[in-house]
């Protein structure tokens, strides 16, 4: 009852503060529009390619390319499984003389790297094939020439009576030689047909698509963190918190009241961001939208608890702002927007204490692979642990202002 | 019941190493207005904080309604008005009153009636639907007092309630406080306005973390051999 009262009050205050509302709802859209325009360039990353029934030579050629690792699979289904599990980024399969490529395409940079690597490896392989073919044909020609010379000698030794036969033989040899050259030619001209398949999106899927799920989480986290932290700080500095605590309201009611109100706000914000990205930016969502909202809601609550907790260490709005470079910016770095696999191991370890990473992973899985929310127990579990611990700390932390 | 509403015995409070309250003995009986006067920094607000259970006593005992503080449930029977107005700017006066009323545990059905009553006492009925951000300083103070009055609490703790309130309204508020006293409810009030101290049943003079004197205004003036409480105050402070 009191919890609901606090929720109503916080919501009322929020919805009357039009500027803050605009910040929460319009700023993310604006920034995402900008980013979708800016971040469609590519850079190099490490990729792992799974190959099925591809020649040894081509495998070796690809493995020799920088940033590329090759894994061989016996069947396509085994490779597909690995692709789904993200242990490889693409599959190269040979069908007769043609190649079929399948990209996970969750990261357009990786897709581009694989495409380029495969093309280079294929060219290198066909060049070496050409070389050997050329060598063979040269050998054949040399042999034919030798034969020809032998024949000419024979011809010289023999008399004109056999001349008709020699001409026939000569003709036969020259036809043979031409056929060899045509054979050589055909190997070079008949480049294998390459077909591309994408698990997620299509050839136009850009870097932004990969950032989007994380960005979404980031906006929810950032704004809820900042605004809730400021709100509680204001309650403290204006004395309303003291006065609130001079009523029989329990400390947990205050924390839960805040959670409910900001939870509602986060739901609206997430829906808005999802709608904008799907309709305006044309990003494909494979999985369930409701699941995306659920994950972002949990993240928003973590952000809220985090904001409230840190606001107790700030004495003014300006001091609250000082947490942005300390708390928010590292969240961006370790969230997965910048590929973590190329970082040093100890740097990577830091990402395990970053809440946005888990939300980002989970939402990426839902949006790009259509993973069911029930298969994301790990990410959700970690987020819930963050939430429970922080909430507990907040309820205990309010003891600073009232001892019961 | 003859039992004291507030009973502070040998109360001491330290913040870290710094003692703020050293030895506070103070009682507030039912149907009594007790004034707490003293220079700034004497520890008036700390006395209030310990009484409300926001801080825990480092020594001695603090009892309210005969129960040791801190005690959360008892807060529903105490009306508190802080030195700062502590209002939600974005809400209207009515919304502020309703919110705090709900937090105090007033039944939903009774809230509107309560709001109308306390608004009349502090003369805010006409401005009740305006946002607090548009209120004048005096109006905010009145609204803050109205919040403390909500729910007819048995005990009112008012920290400088009449700062910034014009004389006519101050008289009106004191009339209401007297009425509350006559109902057998109690009031602990801190003030800087010395003629207000004269209106209290008993006055406690707080100095340097101790209660230097605690008696009726008349008795205090006699013992210090002065004519006003203000002189008592100055004499106790050693300013002659």
TrEMBL record, chain A:
It is found in: Cell membrane. It comes from the Bacteria. Signal peptide: none annotated. It holds the Pfam family ABC2_membrane_3. It is a multi-pass membrane protein. Residues 134-161 form a coiled coil. The keyword Hydrolase does not apply. The keyword Cell inner membrane does not apply. Keywords: Cell membrane, Coiled coil, Membrane, Transmembrane, Transmembrane helix, Transport. Its main location: membrane. The chain crosses the membrane at residues 21-39, 211-233, 254-283, 289-311, 323-340, 380-398. Residues 163-401 form the ABC transmembrane type-2 domain. Belongs to the ABC-2 integral membrane protein family. This is ABC transporter permease. It comes from Lactiplantibacillus songbeiensis.
From TrEMBL, chain B:
Keywords: ATP-binding, Nucleotide-binding. GO terms for molecular function: ATP binding. InterPro entries: AAA+_ATPase, ABC_transporter-like_ATP-bd, ABC_transporter-like_CS, P-loop_NTPase. It comes from the Bacteria. Pfam families: ABC_tran. Residues 6-233 form the ABC transporter domain. PANTHER family: ABC TRANSPORTER G FAMILY MEMBER 20 ISOFORM X1, ATP-BINDING CASSETTE, SUB-FAMILY H, MEMBER 1. This is ABC transporter ATP-binding protein. The lineage of its organism: Bacteria, Bacillati, Bacillota, Bacilli, Lactobacillales.
